[in-house]
Design goal:
Length: about 150
């Protein structure tokens, strides 16, 4: 196993996660894994931004439905840091279709749909870089030390 790089990835709790009240469940899984939130915001996504985010799927049969779903209610956008966080988050998220995603994954445990599948995660370092710059200004990403080790009271 080669050493992994410390990375930042872009995750989005999709409209179904917000509508179903599963944001806390999803964020809790990320935190318990040891990943760190570097940025987080609630966004009702404008159509143009949705189309930019999913540009790789433009022209596919599911694209219009995907954009309609993604803009239908607010999402929670997160920048998430940790060793190998891009691949680690994809593993935590599971396969695209909730019916096929493995138990123990977010999609495998929490949904039955292929389209309304709760969460997006960047699929490569190149995607993460592009998506982070699409959703966050540099000033919105915060460096800090996790844990309460500084509290000596
Ligand atoms: P995401 O980008 O949202 O993290 O999902 P993913 O990598 O697992 O899947 P991707 O192939 O990138 O597809 C993006 C999203 O489009 C919807 N989809 N619908 N009806 C269909 O065949 C179909 N295929 C994809 C899903 O919401 C998927 O997450
Ligand atoms: Mg994808």
């Amino acid at each position: 196993m080669p050493p992994a790089a410390f990375e930042t990835t872009l995750l989005i709790a999709k409209p179904d996660a917000v509508q179903r009240g599963l944001v806390g469940e999803i964020v809790g899984r990320l935190e318990r894994k040891g990943l760190q939130l570097a940025g987080m915001k609630l966004v009702h996504v404008p159509r143009k931004l949705a189309e930019q985010h999913y540009a790789e799927h433009a022209g596919k049969g599911f694209f219009d439905g995907l954009i309609a779903f993604f803009t239908s209610a607010p999402v929670v956008v997160m920048a998430v840091r940790g060793v190998g966080s891009i691949a680690v988050c994809r593993t935590l998220i599971g396969a695209t279709n909730g019916r096929l995603a493995a138990p123990g994954t977010i999609r495998g445990d929490l949904g039955l749909s292929g389209g309304h599948n709760l969460i997006h995660g960047s699929d490569s370092p190149e995607s993460a870089e592009r998506e982070l710059s699409l959703w966050f200004d540099d000033a919105e990403l915060i460096d800090y030390t996790s844990s309460s080790q500084g509290d000596v009271y």
